Amino acid sequence: MSTSSAALDHSHDDHHHGPAKGFSRWLFTTNHKDIGSMYLWFSFAMFLLGGTFALVIRAELFQPGLQFVEPNFFNQMTTMHGLVMVFGAVMPAFVGLANWMIPLMIGAPDMALPRMNNWSFWILPFAFALMVSTLFMEGGGPNFGWTFYAPLSTTYAPSSVTYFIFAVHIMGASSIMGAINVIATILNMRAPGMTLMKMPLFVWTWLITAYLLIAVMPVLAGVVTMMLFDIHFGTSFFNAAGGGDPVLFQHLFWFFGHPEVYIMILPAFGVVSAIIPTFARKRLFGYDSMVYATASIAFLSFIVWAHHMFTVGMPLAGQLFFMYATMLIAVPTGVKVFNWVATMFRGAMTFETPMLFAIAFVVLFTIGGFTGVMLAMTPVDFQYHDTYFVVAHFHYVLVPGAVFSLMAAAYYWLPKWTGYMYDENLGKLHFWMSFVGVNLLFFPQHFLGLAGMPRRIPDYALQFANFNWISSVGAFLFGFSQLILLVVVIKCIRGGKKATDQVWEGAEGLEWTVPSPAPYHTFETPPDPSLIKDQ
Amino acid sequence: MASESSHSVYYVPEQTKFPFFASIGLFFMVFGLGSVLNDISASESATGSTWIALAGFTLLSFIIFQWFATVIRENHAGLNNEQLKRSYVWGMLWFIFSEVMFFAAFFGALFYVRNLSVPWLGGEGEKGVAGEFLWPEFQAAWPLINNPDSSIFTNPHEALNVHEWSLSFFAGYLPFWNTVILITSSVTLHYAHHALKHENRKRLIQWMFVTVGLGIIFLGLQALEYVEAYGHYGLTLDSGIYGSTFFLLTGFHGFHVTLGTFILIVMLLRCLKGHFKPDDHFGFEAAAWYWHFVDVVWVMLFFFVYLL
């Protein structure tokens, strides 16, 4: 079937308007591809910034004793590293992918609400300018950890916490608008014939992620508002002297925080579910079960939050409920992992860079998942809580998990975005350096945690020295390897081997029926329904 | 193809200056607001910060006004097809859902302190141990009048909740009348909508006037209640957890009623200008949904903050 020529006819109908000239193109654009690109660049910049903060941490922890930074500044680094990576790097990167790919995947002319789409993006640079500027304020920036537990973030917080609160408010508004846009696009803009169960899994995972965002970002806004009131208006929500409870903060925060974890990983599942079938040259195994598993994980994410706070004291019934509910998540997650493995089983596999990152994702994310089951066990968690074991756990799901899927996505769709193939050798170099670096960085942290090293400290006892220097070496290796990605992307934008429309031999889906690079406007008339295949 | 025609004219505006400048306005508004609060906490003059906040707010309001005006103009020019209108419907629905979750956080906090943490602080159950060590004298109760440490958080004299189930009590109970007023306003707004659908502009405008009036009366009474609470009941933001939850819930609800009333006033002005058609008035419908949502939140408030 000559899929590409059919799509070409459609996209050539309406070529009266290209991008606007000059810098105002980026400020005032309503184009989902422009906005997607801005999100991706912004998130990459934040990734480097948050990574720099992480390297300050790892430099300090290279050996015991205080070398480079004051403890208070160290705390600001752990806090800012977490906030910047979660809200500035991972989330916007997935929104960028959603912007670029969802309209292309469902055959829509653009996102449903293009002007609001631009607003969702442009709030972010301002929000992060406000947040990062707190580092230079009198009294320093937020130093209470990215989870900003009260009373550290209220009674004992530096005065810059007020700006932190407002920064969270406006980035929350940005996320909610982005999520509303995604939902309206997916529910309302699908091309004729694109039924829900024919949507690529990336679209499905984003639909469910958007629901999670709309449900929990307002709760985050609520909890920071209560902080603001405790700090400036004398309320006692998180102060037991007035009848409040600091633990209330943790309940509210984690009611947001746990679904937030899935906001960062569900789209990653979608990316991997797109890449593995392409390079295994087989259909995705168990599409329906993938959809149902995603929905189950999203549902369960709302009823497990207190597993983050087993040690604060909770009635026994509560501990048991949250323990079993948490373990239940392993079931749908297992469904996904087995489906990816089954997709690869007896496939005609090749190992281009996106596939390498995707396979590494499956293996390393699963390690993070296993440690998650360990942490879910209440009595065991009493031992692991607040140690480096927890740090190792969530970095395994977030770095070789979410971040690797983002790398995979970047390599996978880069030819579609730029029209050129990226440098495969540099890509592979980037992968292997990242792979070795990330495991050197985080695997020893399991042992440190099991041996009792607490997290968020600038100094530690001598017996932890060996694993810490290994971890720090891994951190610098991993960190500087990311510059290779920057080189690859810039090289790819500037030229290289021309990419075909389909780019990858085994790629299926509407995004591969439009030319490479994808024209400024695509699917202004819907694609031919015969192009939409069963999953 | 039949289905193509409805899809092919989805209106995608070329460029827009609104969002970028709205972001600038938003930034200066929150930066100014944060500075105002910090200045006050540090006992410094907040004049400069206030001007920054106001400038940001003015810019943001101006942009949003222009933005909505543009959307309305586009609709009048016939640029919005059925599909685009559905996007607005989905957008409004999920925006309201996000508001529901915002209030859910505050209601959740109320349930948690009432049913769990305050009893624990009073020594109840296996978690009561800490309470025994912290404030052994403390007695759990709701509404909480005697705070654990009343030297930090001054006790209120009296609570504002229903403490007597009699007709004479409710007849003089301001929140009860506010409930009646707000529910009535939802009904009158429904009549206005009905009149709009049946092309009866005179009735539409009359009912809109009534609805806006009821909204303003509600806000007036709510302000009166706050004055009473501060003046006579000693119930303030810093009078412990009962006052904290009371003012947070009713305050944010009041803020939403203020916003809702403002939206309804805009709708009324648009009705007077001859906007809206019986089969095309989503702006009006969205405003009505918002008002009904605010009404439902109040009913919940009345139950959980005042009645129970």
Automatic annotation (TrEMBL), chain A:
<feature type="transmembrane region" description="Helical">
    <location>
        <begin position="121"/>
        <end position="141"/>
    </location>
</feature>
<feature type="transmembrane region" description="Helical">
    <location>
        <begin position="161"/>
        <end position="189"/>
    </location>
</feature>
<dbReference type="GO" id="GO:0015990">
    <property type="term" value="P:electron transport coupled proton transport"/>
</dbReference>
<dbReference type="GO" id="GO:0045277">
    <property type="term" value="C:respiratory chain complex IV"/>
</dbReference>
<feature type="transmembrane region" description="Helical">
    <location>
        <begin position="354"/>
        <end position="376"/>
    </location>
</feature>
<feature type="transmembrane region" description="Helical">
    <location>
        <begin position="467"/>
        <end position="490"/>
    </location>
</feature>
<dbReference type="GO" id="GO:0022904">
    <property type="term" value="P:respiratory electron transport chain"/>
</dbReference>
<feature type="transmembrane region" description="Helical">
    <location>
        <begin position="426"/>
        <end position="447"/>
    </location>
</feature>
<dbReference type="GO" id="GO:0046872">
    <property type="term" value="F:metal ion binding"/>
</dbReference>
<keyword id="KW-0349">Heme</keyword>
<keyword id="KW-0679">Respiratory chain</keyword>
<feature type="transmembrane region" description="Helical">
    <location>
        <begin position="388"/>
        <end position="414"/>
    </location>
</feature>
<comment type="function">
    <text>Cytochrome c oxidase is the component of the respiratory chain that catalyzes the reduction of oxygen to water. Subunits 1-3 form the functional core of the enzyme complex. CO I is the catalytic subunit of the enzyme. Electrons originating in cytochrome c are transferred via the copper A center of subunit 2 and heme A of subunit 1 to the bimetallic center formed by heme A3 and copper B.</text>
</comment>
<protein>
    <recommendedName>
        <fullName>Cytochrome c oxidase subunit 1</fullName>
        <ecNumber>7.1.1.9</ecNumber>
    </recommendedName>
</protein>
<keyword id="KW-0249">Electron transport</keyword>
<dbReference type="InterPro" id="IPR036927">
    <property type="entry name" value="Cyt_c_oxase-like_su1_sf"/>
</dbReference>
<feature type="domain" description="Cytochrome oxidase subunit I profile">
    <location>
        <begin position="26"/>
        <end position="532"/>
    </location>
</feature>
<feature type="transmembrane region" description="Helical">
    <location>
        <begin position="39"/>
        <end position="59"/>
    </location>
</feature>
<dbReference type="GO" id="GO:0005886">
    <property type="term" value="C:plasma membrane"/>
</dbReference>
<keyword id="KW-1278">Translocase</keyword>
<comment type="pathway">
    <text>Energy metabolism; oxidative phosphorylation.</text>
</comment>
<comment type="similarity">
    <text>Belongs to the heme-copper respiratory oxidase family.</text>
</comment>
Automatic annotation (TrEMBL), chain B:
<dbReference type="InterPro" id="IPR033945">
    <property type="entry name" value="Cyt_c_oxase_su3_dom"/>
</dbReference>
<keyword id="KW-1278">Translocase</keyword>
<dbReference type="InterPro" id="IPR000298">
    <property type="entry name" value="Cyt_c_oxidase-like_su3"/>
</dbReference>
<dbReference type="InterPro" id="IPR013833">
    <property type="entry name" value="Cyt_c_oxidase_su3_a-hlx"/>
</dbReference>
<dbReference type="InterPro" id="IPR024791">
    <property type="entry name" value="Cyt_c/ubiquinol_Oxase_su3"/>
</dbReference>
<dbReference type="Pfam" id="PF00510">
    <property type="entry name" value="COX3"/>
</dbReference>
<keyword id="KW-1133">Transmembrane helix</keyword>
<dbReference type="GO" id="GO:0016020">
    <property type="term" value="C:membrane"/>
</dbReference>
<feature type="transmembrane region" description="Helical">
    <location>
        <begin position="50"/>
        <end position="72"/>
    </location>
</feature>
<keyword id="KW-0472">Membrane</keyword>
<dbReference type="GO" id="GO:0004129">
    <property type="term" value="F:cytochrome-c oxidase activity"/>
</dbReference>
<feature type="transmembrane region" description="Helical">
    <location>
        <begin position="20"/>
        <end position="38"/>
    </location>
</feature>
<feature type="transmembrane region" description="Helical">
    <location>
        <begin position="289"/>
        <end position="307"/>
    </location>
</feature>
<dbReference type="GO" id="GO:0019646">
    <property type="term" value="P:aerobic electron transport chain"/>
</dbReference>
<dbReference type="InterPro" id="IPR035973">
    <property type="entry name" value="Cyt_c_oxidase_su3-like_sf"/>
</dbReference>
<keyword id="KW-0812">Transmembrane</keyword>
<feature type="transmembrane region" description="Helical">
    <location>
        <begin position="244"/>
        <end position="269"/>
    </location>
</feature>
<feature type="transmembrane region" description="Helical">
    <location>
        <begin position="170"/>
        <end position="192"/>
    </location>
</feature>
<feature type="transmembrane region" description="Helical">
    <location>
        <begin position="204"/>
        <end position="224"/>
    </location>
</feature>
<protein>
    <recommendedName>
        <fullName>cytochrome-c oxidase</fullName>
        <ecNumber>7.1.1.9</ecNumber>
    </recommendedName>
</protein>
<feature type="transmembrane region" description="Helical">
    <location>
        <begin position="93"/>
        <end position="113"/>
    </location>
</feature>
<comment type="similarity">
    <text>Belongs to the cytochrome c oxidase subunit 3 family.</text>
</comment>
